[in-house]
Write a sequence for this structure.
């Protein structure tokens, strides 16, 4: 016998898990009993789903589902290999062309997920003589991407252009790369993109912008924050995910043709992994069609967001910086956030408690997200439930 139970090499696990449990940091899976949607079934209960990133309600859209099935029928369930071996399928090319246009860039390259893109691209653009400058609240996948690079990583305070300016000016690195979330995943606020572009231009630094939570939502066509601010031409590398507002799975890195050519040879998370399955690509293509054909979805989630924002501000939570349907209700202590989440659940609302290391210690929170598929009554409902719950979990 081996393993934890026998006190073998994994004998440290029970104690370690108990340690997480004690600190309110243990995470556990819970199987959903239904498809992604504004209401989901969990543990036999029907709950209003306020924690998905399916912002436009496309994960269950009939056109998206049909396109996924059709792409699988036409090009297979799996790509069979990495793009560079024999997995380079027509649907990948079609999707890359569409995404390059959406991002206002010359070319685009698919990655298996946003995590893969962030874990691989910074290292492909830098080496041991270089430096990466990363906002402290950047997503974990960016943190990991910096770690696996050979460059020196310098973290700057959240959205602090003055600090970044000083760091860039002081740096003697051969190449400099600034990396930022466009919309920060746990706070819903936006990077100061115009200032970042200017600083990068002034210091000859490359700029990498992760539009995971901006793609499909911001900008005149849903292209993202770069489109919204008219800065697409001045950002070197734009990453977008297909698994959030676009309802599918995967990611794209858009930029110049030369950039994409370089990544094809040098981004290890592109080279050494199986290409995206056709179904995911077909679904994303259909999602892009829906994005164009049903602009009312974006309008609806924006209106619901305004309602949520006003309601949360009435409850005393400032939401002034929020630019996407992500609403952080910061409660501080892990256990307080967990308790609030479970009390909301008793009232029929699924809102997850977000704890360290996803967010800094002492800023545990409820992260409420909205979808175009929600009804205004569901927004009002969770606000009323939250008002009750806050009285039960005093700060
Ligand atoms: N970047 C950000 C800002 C994210 O929030 C996420 C996912 N939560 C990712 C990247 C990773 O994307 P994916 O889920 O496609 O791996």
């Amino acid at each position: 016998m081996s393993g934890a139970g026998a006190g073998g090499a994994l004998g440290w696990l029970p104690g370690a898990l108990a340690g997480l449990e004690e600190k309110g940091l243990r995470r556990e899976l819970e199987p959903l009993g239904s498809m992604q949607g504004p209401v989901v079934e969990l543990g036999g209960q029907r709950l209003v789903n306020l924690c998905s990133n399916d912002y436009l309600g496309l994960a269950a859209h009939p056109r998206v589902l049909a396109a996924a099935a059709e792409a699988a029928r036409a090009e297979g369930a799996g790509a069979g290999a990495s793009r560079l071996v024999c997995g380079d399928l027509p649907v990948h090319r079609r999707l890359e062309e569409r995404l390059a246009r959406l991002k206002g860039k010359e070319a685009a390259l698919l990655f298996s997920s946003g995590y893969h893109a962030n874990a691989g691209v910074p290292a492909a653009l830098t080496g041991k003589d270089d430096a990466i400058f990363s906002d402290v609240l950047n997503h974990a996948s960016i943190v990991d991407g910096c770690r696996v690079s050979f460059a020196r990583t310098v973290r700057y305070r959240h959205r602090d252009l003055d600090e970044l300016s000083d760091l860039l000016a002081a740096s003697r690195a051969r190449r400099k790369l600034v990396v930022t979330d466009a919309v920060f995943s746990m706070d819903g606020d936006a990077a100061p993109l115009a200032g970042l572009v200017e600083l990068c231009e002034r210091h000859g630094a490359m700029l990498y912008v992760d539009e995971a939570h901006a793609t499909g939502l911001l900008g005149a066509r849903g292209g993202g924050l770069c489109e919204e601010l008219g800065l697409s031409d001045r950002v070197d590398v734009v990453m977008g995910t297909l698994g959030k507002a676009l309802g599918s799975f995967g990611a794209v890195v858009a930029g110049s043709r030369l950039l994409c050519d370089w990544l094809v040879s040098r981004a290890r998370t592109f080279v050494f992994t199986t290409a995206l399955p056709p179904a995911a690509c077909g679904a994303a293509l259909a999602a892009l069609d829906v994005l164009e054909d049903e602009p009312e979805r974006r309008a609806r989630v924006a209106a619901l967001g305004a309602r949520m924002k006003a309601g949360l501000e009435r409850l005393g939570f400032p939401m002034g910086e929020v630019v996407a349907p992500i609403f952080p209700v910061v409660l501080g202590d892990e256990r307080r956030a967990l308790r609030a989440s479970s009390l909301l659940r008793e009232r029929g609302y699924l809102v997850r408690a977000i704890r360290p290391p996803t967010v800094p210690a002492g800023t545990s929170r409820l992260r409420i997200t909205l979808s175009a598929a929600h009804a205004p009554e569901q927004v009002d409902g969770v606000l009323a439930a939250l008002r009750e719950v806050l009285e039960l979990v005093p700060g």
About this structure: The pocket of 4'-deoxy-4'-aminopyridoxal-5'-phosphate is lined by residues 113-115, 118, 139, 141, 181, 185, 210, 212-213, 241, 243, 251 (CB under 6 Å).
